[in-house]
Amino acid sequence: MKGLKKIALFYTLFMTVVLLIICGLHKSLRFAQRIPESYTDEELKIYKQIWDQMNNSVDMYKEQTFIFTVYIWALMMLAGYVLLLVIYFKDLKPIMELQKFAEEIAKGNLDVPLPMKRNNSFVEFSEGFDIMREELRASKRREIEAENAKKQLVAELSHDLKTPVATIQATCEVLEVQISRKKAEIEKLKAESDGGNEDSISAELAARYAEIENLEEKVGYITKKADTISELVQNVLHATIDDMKEVSMSIDEYSSAEIEGFIMNLKEYGKIIIDGHIPGCLVYMDKLRMEQVIDNVIGNSYKYAGTDIHVSFKETEITVNAEGKKDRFVKIIIRDKGKGVPEEELPLLVEKYYRGSNSKDKNGYGLGMYLVKRYMEKQGGGFEYYNDNGFVVELLVKKV
């Protein structure tokens, strides 16, 4: 654009100089009058008359020629500007648009389409450039989807690892208690045998004691490594959840009986009492997410309440919009008999990484209830929780 402005300015100056030259020539063009000395008065009079007539004709011709020349100059001036405009719109403007388009692509903005005009000289190049933009955008979209899928997989694996790790830690705690009891029993038997000179019994007890100490050392090693794994998984899960923008869901129609199956499979969480069967129907859900939801809720009740867990079901209808439209849901009510959650902490349970005042000696990431809320909403359902002689969670699963 700057180059075109310079050309237009130079052309204007050049044509202005040409006009000045034309005006100068017009004014300087005159005929000198020469009267021979040999003319008589009568001849001189006739000569002047002829000269005046010729001079008038020449002046008239000169004026007409000047006007014609100015017209030609004006037409050339106009034609030059028209030519510059044609060059601008046909060649320069498409180049400028391509330059701006390239700058947007360099910034990573691949959603701006390149204007297509069939009458410019770069139409094929522009089409090829726009095809390149579309391919780059598709490639970037695939890259983002692959990255999100990777993050989602890491988050799922990290979160799912917490259950077996917690089971290993709990098993190690039980083993440590049993080992302590056996060591106490052996010490008691050893003290009793020391009174009677039974060397063989003492040797046998010493061997058993050494074996138990060796087992205790190994259990301690496993516990230490399990704690390390738990901490590493927690760090990975935090970083992945923070970096994830969307949670992938695969929602389809499934039998409600599968939800009851999820609950019955959680035997490691103590005694779970199912009060009646879930109503038989089809529901919308993502099986993996729904299983995670059930696991998180019942796992939290087992961890913090330590009581029997009761699960019941009912059908309900809820108004979901201002037009009065109602959707049907299956409500899953999960209730424990623990102390519940302090009222001032209830609103914070669904916040990312929040852990209550009773979680200081408990393993966890502070993501359980946050993910429950997120997953249920993504499935078109709902989630509520409150205290009622224990902690109660209600999950709403949308019916087909």
Instruction: Count all strands and give the number.
Output: 7
Number of domain units: 3
Shape: elongated
Count of helix runs: 7
3D architecture notes:
Helix 1 runs antiparallel to helix 2 (41-106), helix 5 runs parallel beside helix 6 and helix 6 runs antiparallel to helix 7 (368-378). The chain is of the alpha+beta class and 400 residues long. The protein contains 7 helices and 7 strands, in the order H-H-H-H-E-H-E-E-H-E-E-H-E-E. It folds into 3 domains: 2-106; 156-243; 252-398, Heat Shock Protein 90 (2-Layer Sandwich), CATH 3.30.565.10. It is 62% helix and 12% strand. The strands form 2 sheets. The chain has a 5-stranded mixed beta sheet. Strands 1-3 form a two-stranded antiparallel ribbon.
Give a brief outline of the structure.
Helix 3 (123-195) packs antiparallel against helix 4, helix 5 (257-264) runs parallel beside helix 6 (287-304) and helix 6 (287-304) runs antiparallel to helix 7. Helices cover 62% and strands 12% of the residues. The chain has helices at residues 2-28, 41-106, 123-195, 199-243, 257-264, 287-304, 368-378, and strands at residues 252-255, 272-275, 282-285, 309-319, 326-335, 382-387, 391-398.
Layout of strands and helices, then pairs:
Blueprint: H1 2-28, H2 41-106, H3 123-195, H4 199-243, E1 252-255, H5 257-264, E2 272-275, E3 282-285, H6 287-304, E4 309-319, E5 326-335, H7 368-378, E6 382-387, E7 391-398
Parallel strand pairs: 2-4
Antiparallel strand pairs: 1-3, 4-5, 5-7, 6-7
Helix pairs in contact: 1-2, 3-4, 5-6, 6-7
